[in-house]
Amino acid sequence: MLPPPDAQDGDATVRLATWTPERQIAHMLELCEAQMESALAESDVAVDALIQSFSGLIEAARSVSALAEQLPASSQQAAASGIAARLAAVEKQTSAAIVAFQFYDKLTQRLGHVRYSLSAMAMFVCDGAKASERDQWRRLFSTLKRLYRTEEERQIFKMMVDGATAEEAREHIHQSTQSLKVEPAGDVEIF
């Protein structure tokens, strides 16, 4: 972080000479970007491990089901129906978990867009000439708009550019997420 205006040590004196409110804002935006990157990297490792575990569970359930089919005919009927029902339940729950992780993938993509936006904003505010020109702001918005791939991202971006308050955007987000349900529909493609 840039030193406060009253810092006196040698290295800080050089940075003090270039201190501006805009650079401080940019630096804080970079801090936000770095924190998001760190959190995403840590969560990616955990999610990858969980996806592998759930994939293994699905494969194990399928293997047990195949073994149940090989039981002798006399015991197969009673045991097979109970085993099959339990395995189907395990597979359904595991598939639902994988769908939830697919939502996580969407989240990481969206946070990546936010990270880029923060970096672009940090560079933009440091350039006083650009930051003071309305046309340059339009260009920045146009560049950032191209990042957004999901309908939710585009809606929020449009709301904010059109003058909505952060509270209005949060309310929109809250309303739109109320309708989301994580339910698998048939087979789940594991990526």
Question: Summarize this, please?
Answer:
With 191 residues, the protein is mostly helical. The protein has 7 helices and no strands.
List keywords for this structure.
mainly alpha, elongated, 78% helix, 191 residues, 7 helices
Task: Output the radius of gyration.
Answer: 26 Å
How would you sum up the global shape? Answer: elongated
Distance between the termini: 39 Å
Low-pLDDT stretches: 181-186
Task: Estimate what percentage of residues fall within beta strands.
Answer: under 5%
* Main sheet properties: none
> Which structural category do the helix and sheet elements fall into?
mainly alpha
Give the rounded overall mean pLDDT.
76
Query: Got a strand count?
Result: 0
Compressed to H and E, one letter per element, the order equals: HHHHHHH
Helix amount = over 70%
Task: Count up the helices.
Answer: 7
